[in-house]
Structure formats: C-alpha cells, structure tokens
Amino acid sequence: MLQFFRETVRYRELIWALALKDLRVRYKRSALGFFWALLHPLLMMVILTIVFSTVMRFNIDNYAVFLVVALLPWTFFSQSLSYSAESIVSNGELLKKLYIAKSVFPVSAVLANFINFVLSLIPLLLLLVVMRFPLHWTWIYLPVPTIGLIAFTLGFCFFCSAANVFFRDVAHIIQIVLSAWFYFSPIIYSLDFIPERFYIFFRLNPLVYILNGFRMAIYHGGLPTIQSAAMSLGCGFICFAIGYAIFRKYEDSFVYYL
C-alpha cells in the first residue's frame, strides 16, 4: 500500500491530466458536455422512480431521494469499473515506449469518475431543496462510506484492469456482472423487502454496508451501527489490498500481452 501512495504522489500531475483527458473525450462533441454528469443521475432517477414508485408501487416515502442517494455511489462504482477495465490495454502503445507506473491508468479512470460523482451531488442537493427534504446533520458521516467506496472501487479496478490484459473477455463479462450486481444491491429497494431466509445472501454483498452508510446519513438522518461502519471501511480496504497486490504481481508482464 505504501508503494501505491508513492506512485500516486509521484505521478499525481499525470493522473490528473489523464483524468481530465478522459472526461474531455467522454463528452467530446456532446451538445451538453459536462452537464451530462448532472443530467444522467437525474434522468435515471426519474425513470426508476416512475417505474418503481408508480408501476411497481414500492411503498417508500420520498422514493426519489431514497433512490438517488444509493444510485449515485453505485454509478461511480460501475462506471469506474467499466472504464478502468480497458485502461491498461488502451494505453498499451504508450507503455511499450515509456516507463510509467502502470497503476496511474486505473487510478486516473477512478479519479475521472469521482469528479463526475462530486458533480452529481449538485442535482442531489437541488432535489432535496425542491422536495423540501431536510438536510440532516448526519451528512458529516459521509466521508466514511466515501472512503470505503473509493477503496473498494480501486481494488476492483486494479484487479479487472490486470485481468483484462490477459483475458480480453473480462471487459465484456464486467457488464454482465454489473447488471446482476445492481439488482442484488439495495438501490431500488430496501433490505426490508427481502425475505428473511434470503437476507444472509444479501449481507454477503460488501456494497450493502457502503450504500447503507450513504442512505442512513442522507435519507434516514441517522448513523449506521459501529459494525456496519467498520464493515464499509473494512471491505473497502481488504478489496483494495487484494486488488492492488494482484495488480503489482503481474504488472511487469503486461507489456508482453499488449
């Protein structure tokens, strides 16, 4: 982990430049440009709210707020994973010519999506104001699930970007896994809707604890249990440690497969 921080500090300017380049390319020739970072979560919220509060009739008060506070961190995680999976392969020619710490590419992909995540908090605040939803003091807890989310995301991104170098099917498999993972995470529903006999399987999902932190602080106006808070950080750092260790183990052989 110390090596990770050293490389991040050493290549911080390159990481920032790559993240901004990723955002510019993503919104290139788009009429609305960076405004899509604000509109995307709002449009998804509107669609899902109509489907699950009107058609499917989930009986949850202020469902739009309930949904978006979990949808935003999920979007950060899923988009980071999708973009970082190709980060090493897409920069293969550069890695063949210059020596650059290979970790900068998945890190820059995560940073680009974190910028999107921060921008997406603007429509969240607007939604709370429009709906006259209270701004709870428990917002001060948000750094805890955010740190857990970043660590968890980095771990998966390191693993998937490394695996995709050797098995190019990984980038396609990720999309299928994310689709299933979305519905097995308490984003569009509350865990209270899960039958008790299946509850233990959902508790095995590390994102449950992270998303619960966001939802408790913003929607419920409370704090999670100490166990839940510890799990959100613990799962994040364990995932980061494993993903980065695998990435470091195989990074020297990437160039032979690019």
What topology does this entry show?
Blueprint: H1 2-10, H2 12-26, H3 36-55, H4 63-85, H5 87-90, H6 92-97, H7 104-130, H8 143-166, H9 170-183, H10 199-203, H11 207-220, H12 226-250
- Structural shape: globular
Mean pLDDT: 85
Note the total helix count. Answer: 12
Our estimate of the beta-strand percent is under 5%
Oligomer: single chain
Total discrete domains: 1
Give a summary of the structure in a few sentences.
The chain has 258 residues and is an all-alpha fold. It has helices at 2-10, 12-26, 36-55, 63-85, 87-90, 92-97, 104-130, 143-166, 170-183, 199-203, 207-220, 226-250.
Can you describe this structure?
The chain is mainly alpha-helical and 258 residues long. It has one domain (2-257). The chain has helices spanning 2-10, 12-26, 36-55, 63-85, 87-90, 92-97, 104-130, 143-166, 170-183, 199-203, 207-220, 226-250. It starts with a helix and ends in an 8-residue tail after the last helix. The model has no long low-confidence stretch (mean pLDDT 85).
Keywords:
single chain; 258 residues; mainly alpha; globular
